[in-house]
Amino acid sequence: MPKFSAVVTTLENGFSEAYEVMVSISADQKEGQSKSLHGYPIVSGPRTIDLTDQRALQLILQSRDTYPEHAVPRDCAFQPCVAFRFTEKSVVDILVCFKCSELRYYLNGEMIWQTYFKPEELESLVKKIFPKP
User: Fold this and answer.
1) Distance between CA 32 and CA 74 in Å, rounded?
2) Which domain holds residue 39?
3) 25, 26, 74, 131: which could form a disulfide with 100 (CB 3.0–4.6 Å)?
4) Tens digit of each residue's pLDDT (9 = 90 or more) over 17-73
5) What is the largest CA-CA distance in the chain?
6) How many angstroms separate the CA atoms of 54 and 34, rounded?
């Protein structure tokens, strides 16, 4: 469990940023696109999350209510649109797919956990962090 305790410590004490990511890019988009997060091209970010939103994000991710007990996997491919990065002594990245309600947790570049989640609260927070015109 040392990996998971490093994740919890980093979530509680770390500084966080948010990124918009996309699943794939076309050949003409590739020229200007050099950064990616775990193989997913970064569309925008990093965007610093203010302390209030950072605390709200931590509470959502740490709440048992966020994770359904008996989640039935959806028949779709993981297509994240948002990533959160927490840094303290470790780097924790959380990629979010709202299409299949799946989270993937990475610790220092290694995927260590994936789970399903209830998207309502997280989706509302993401809309606040990345407002659309």
Assistant:
1) 33
2) 2-129
3) 74
4) 999 998 765 444 454 556 889 999 999 889 989 889 999 998 998 888 888 876 677
5) 44
6) 27
Our count of domains for the chain comes to 1
Q: Residue 74 corresponds to which amino acid?
A: R
Q: Please name the residues in contact with 33: beta carbons below 8 A apart, sequence gap of 6 or more.
A: 25, 41, 42
Q: Does 46 sit behind a cis peptide bond, omega within 30 degrees of 0 on the bond before it?
A: yes
* Separation between Cα atoms, residue 115 and residue 108, nearest integer Å: 18
- DSSP for 19-80, written as a single string: EEE-S---HHHHTT---EETTEEEEEEEEEPPHHHHHHHHHHHH-GGGS-TTPPPPSS----
Minimal CA–CA distance to 53: which of 121, 129, 116?
129
